[in-house]
Amino acid sequence: MSAAAAPSISYKVPTRRHPVLQFITQQPLGAGGLIFIILMAVCAAFAPWVAPYDPLTVDYAAQLAAPSWQHWLGTDSYGRDVLSRIIYGARTALAIGFIASLVGSTLGAIVGVVSAYFGGKTDLVIQGVMDVLLSFPIIVLAITVVAILGNNVVLGIDVNLIVAIALPMLPRVERVVRASALAIRELPYVDAARAAGYSHTRIIFRHIVPNVVAPYLIMLTAFVAQAILAEASLSFLGLGVTEPTPSWGLMLSGSAADFYQQAPWMIVFPGIAISMGVFAFNLFGDSLRDWLDPKIKL
């Protein structure tokens, strides 16, 4: 009698989905915010082909024209197309928002890592400076800096405006990164690296920096929204972008305030653009935090 054939056992190897697909399925609201950010970036990058009119062209025959098939979002007091100026204004918002957030978050992360790793008097002095900067509200400190420095346009971008927006972000990022770096500094493998005689530079870049990338990216994304809002606020107050450069905040000031009853679209549509842009970055930043945080995934 022949031995019975052994039953075959099949093993199903789990498939690992692409990180982008994981983020979309696990964080649908954040994915929606990311889609809006991408659309805004595409419109800003291809503004000359997307915008129906030149945002600087003045047409006095079409002053304060209501929204129509010719001008979808109406025109302003100079006859300029509001939709075209909003599309070009996305360039200003994203450029200043990304650069200011990148500068402020990167400098804050560097200062936070240095402060946490070396500790002692270095940490004491740095934290004292950070406390002074944190004592000012973001918009108040930005107004103070830009009022002192004035305007300094380089390659179409106001450098002093970027500094004014980035400076208030620095201490807030520094505190978050420093807290993460302090916890990592006390781990056994960092002590082992010190005992092995590794240099401070190698320990920082090999063991500290990779472990603070997640909070750095979260803060970087979240502060883009605050940078866009700060740029719009400063431009509205006359301390940011100046005419005739298209800017969402600038579109809310000046003649828009004078004709808000006669032409409410001059205020409504730029306000919606600011709100949607800030909302999209906030959604994406919060979802990115939840997705990268291992404690929330458990």
Bulk shape? elongated
Alpha-carbon Rg, integer? 25 Å
Q: What do the pLDDT scores average to?
A: 84
The number of distinct helices, counting runs of at least 4 residues, comes to 14
Instruction: Report strand order across the widest sheet.
Output: 1-2
Please bin the fraction of helical residues.
55-70%
How far from one another are the termini? Answer: 54 Å
Percentage of β-strand residues? under 5%
Descriptive labels:
mainly alpha, MetI-like fold, 298 residues, single chain
Q: Would you kindly provide a written description of the structure presented here, covering whatever features stand out?
A:
The structure is a single chain. The chain is an all-alpha fold and 298 residues long. It is built from 14 helices and two strands. It has helices at residues 19-26, 28-45, 47-50, 82-118, 120-134, 138-149, 159-185, 188-195, 200-208, 213-236, 248-251, 255-258, 265-292, 294-297, and strands at 153-154, 157-158. The protein has a two-stranded antiparallel sheet with strand order 1-2. A hairpin with a 2-residue loop joins strand 1 and strand 2 (157-158). Helix 4 (82-118) packs parallel to helix 7, helix 4 crosses helix 10 and helix 7 (159-185) runs antiparallel to helix 10. The mean pLDDT is 84.
